[in-house]
Amino acid sequence: MNSIPASDTIALVVFILFFGLTIVAGSTVSHWKGWFSGGKKTPSSAPAEGHSGHDTEEWGLGGREFGAWVTWFLVGGDFYTAYTVIAVPALVYAVGAYGFFALPYTIIVYPFIFIVMPKLWKIANDGGHATAADMIRARFGSRTLELAVAFSGLIAVMPYIALQLIGIRTVVEALGFSGQIPLVIAFVSLAAYTWLGGLHAPALTAFIKDIMIYIAVIAAVTLIPIKLGGYGHMFDVMNSVVAMPDADHVMKAGQMMPYATLALSSALAAFLYPHTLTGILAAKSADTVRQNAVYLPIYTIVLGLIALLGMMAHVAGIDTTVSSMVVPYLFLKLFPDWFAGFAFAAIAVGALVPAAVMAIGAANLLTNNILPKSYAGVTTSRIAAFGVKLGALLCVMFLNAKFAIDLQLLGGVIILQTFPALILGLTKFRFSSTGMLSGWVVGTVFGLAMCWSDGLKPVHTLAIGGWSELVSTGLLALVVNIIVAGVVSVIVPNRSVAVAAE
Question: Which end of the chain is more exposed for a tag (fewer CB within 10 A), N or C?
């Protein structure tokens, strides 16, 4: 049964106003370009061989000129997405405390950013690299491994963009539209926004997005508890809805291992995606990246508050079999129509901004690392980004994941297989290109086979003797990947020393 509050014309008008203005602002961003750098741009070296020049770098990396303030909003904007506002509360609504695994994962990832990402930024800046695959080519000198990493990023980001399309579609459906119209609106708005604005569009509108999200969340976590009798009462009600194993635990015993392993695998995968790495590479200095690692945890506080919306929905009496509709129904039921419209626009913009960066990051991979050099150019990048969004649309239509969050976790299984080549390649261990490629093949096939056999679930039952636990599929595949890469590297070492390891 779905308890669907009736939408109102006022909510629709407010939604169109704020969502439409955001798209217009992003699409006309070329008039704002001097505002981004916040000063003189840090010089960078000439583009590496195979790059398409200044115009493509301007569209795909914002000219590598974003300072600390813009980078903070951009990286946070493409890290906290419809995954945060729609998928996490939906999972909490459906399964309880297990859905909070996203909080520890975002804490684990920040030291990783602080230590690793400035090194990657320096390698990319010194070599004129625009993508992870560029750096892999320079590190290992292998065109095949470069293609493997590029295709991994391209494919992994499609279900992640699909999650953003679901976020936009969800709020459009809550406003009273039905059938395929919400999905068409979501796709067309994203396509137009990305085509016209390039990376400058989400960099500018990330400010708008975060301000809108903060207003909606602060209002929700302040006013909803007042209306529902306070946080103490809400937790009591939630305990009765989701049965606890005993008085000392908030999760069942079988949920603890997948909770921990999903948090770890998500943290390792987070900044391997082309969109998160694009946000890092668009910064104007390594210090900018470090500063962001220090201040980005502010977003985690907001994430924890947003996750509580799933609990609030139970207490408010929201009854739906479509978990992704939980947050829209909650706002429609407990807030005036005008504010519900504003909150829906915030959610839609919160999906639009990161989806644009995702498509641009994937387009960078396609134009820099997959297509012949003769095809490089802004038009090709735009067409490539559009093609990636079409792929995401197909994921929405044909991947029948139980929860929207499973789409992001499915992408994580794929992108995690680039971890050995990109991150372990920075270490002094001399993995060979043959070893890395072998590990990537085995890990990718192994991970996807487990996902398929488990019905697209992100966890797999690992049984050893009498012990049996659900473990993150991506983490299992990564372990297999590293073992294979290490063994093959010993058997088939590289003949030449890698040039970009230092």
Answer: N
Token pair of 15 as six digits: 């939604």
Round to whole Å and give the CA distance between 44 and 305: 40
Question: Do 304 and 107 form a contact (C-beta atoms < 8 A)?
Answer: no
Residues 284, 288, 294: CA angle, nearest 5 degrees:
160
Distance set, CA 217 to CA 299, 326, 381 (Å): 12, 14, 35
Q: Output the pLDDT for position 375.
A: 67
**What's the pTM value of the predicted model, to 2 decimals?**
0.79
179: region left, alpha or beta (phi > 0 left; psi from -120 to 50 alpha): left
424-437 per-position pLDDT tens digit: 877 777 788 899 99
**Which residue matches tokens 């978990």?**
323
| Longest Cα separation, the chain | 69
Whole-number average pLDDT of the chain: 79
More confident: 355 or 249: 355
pLDDT at 439: 95
The fold adopted by the segment(s) 9-423 is Sodium/glucose cotransporter (1.20.1730)
SS3 471: strand
Q: Residue 112: CB partners within 8 Å, gap ≥ 6? A: 267, 268, 271
Using pLDDT thresholds of 50, 70 and 90, give the confidence band for residue 418: very high
Measure CA 419 to chain center: 16
Query: Which of 19, 38, 13, 62 lies closest to 281 in space, CA to CA?
Result: 62
For residue 502, is pLDDT > 70?
no
**What's the rounded Cα separation, in Å, for the pair 406 and 265?**
13
Q: 440 pLDDT band (50/70/90 cuts)?
A: very high
CA distances to 81, 159, 161, 450 from 410, rounded to whole Å, are 16, 7, 12, 11
Start-to-end Cα distance in the chain: 59
Q: Is 53 left (phi over 0), alpha (psi -120 to 50) or beta?
A: left
pLDDT exceeds 80 at position 470:
yes
Dihedral sign for Cα atoms in the order 343, 348, 354, 360: negative
Closest C-alpha among 296, 308, 297 to residue 218:
308
pLDDT-based confidence at residue 42 (cuts at 50, 70, 90): very low
Q: What is the DSSP letter of 367?
A: I
Residue spans of the domains in the chain: they are 9-423
Q: Which two tokens stand for residue 476?
A: 């299992």
Segment holding 470, helix H or strand E: strand 467-472
Query: Which two tokens mark 262?
Result: 């999903």
CA-to-CA dists, residue 278 to 79, 125, 289, 340, 406, angstroms: 11, 12, 12, 33, 23
- Which of 344 and 501 is assigned the larger pLDDT? 344
Report the distance separating Cα 242 and Cα 104, nearest Å: 21
In the chain, the amino acid numbered 467 is: W
